[in-house]
Design a protein that fits this description.
168 residues; alpha/beta; globular
């Protein structure tokens, strides 16, 4: 388990690698996440000049809303922060990059989440399937290979505190 200072230091390194990537620099709108259960903290990115999108869990789907630092958030039934239902909706065609949370990622581009299948369903949808995706984990959770299922969707890259690895 990381100390709070290690968690923040490693999170800041991840943010620096993300910010210097061409995908990030060239994106106008980025779909991301609010840190949960000591996932890497991306909050230092949210004041950049991008339009930011965050999801709400609605039934078995992720519904995306644009959000700025000045807007309120609420905690959902999973304990995850999310935009209010009144926040402007974000359509798939507006999103240029998806930063995906994970429990672990592997060198092949697969991720392990918390088991709800929300991101796999999202990335299986024809509206979202072509969007560039970067999984974010601490290096200790970047593994050679994870067990995969037929519904798992590969990421385009994985970012850790040691760097951004783009995958085929």
């Amino acid at each position: 388990m990381l100390s709070l200072s290690q968690w923040q230091e490693k999170s800041n390194c991840i943010c620096n690698f993300l910010q210097s990537s061409a995908l990030f620099v060239n994106a106008k709108t980025i779909a991301a996440y609010f840190s949960f259960r000591f996932e890497p903290d991306l909050s230092c990115l949210f004041s950049t000049g991008h339009t930011w999108g965050f999801s709400r869990c609605v039934n078995k789907d992720l519904i995306w809303h644009s959000w700025t630092i000045s807007q309120p958030l609420k905690t959902n039934s999973y304990g995850i922060l999310e935009p209010l239902i009144t926040a402007p909706l974000l359509q798939p065609e507006q999103v240029d990059l998806i930063i995906v949370p994970a429990v672990a990622c592997d060198a092949l581009g697969y991720r392990l989440g918390y088991g709800g299948g929300y991101y796999d369903r999202l990335l299986s949808s024809s509206l979202w399937a072509a969007k560039p995706t970067i999984g974010v984990v601490f290096d200790l959770a970047f593994l050679p290979q994870l067990p995969i299922n037929s519904w798992d969707r590969k990421l385009h890259g994985v970012c850790t505190e040691k760097g951004l690895i783009m995958l085929n």
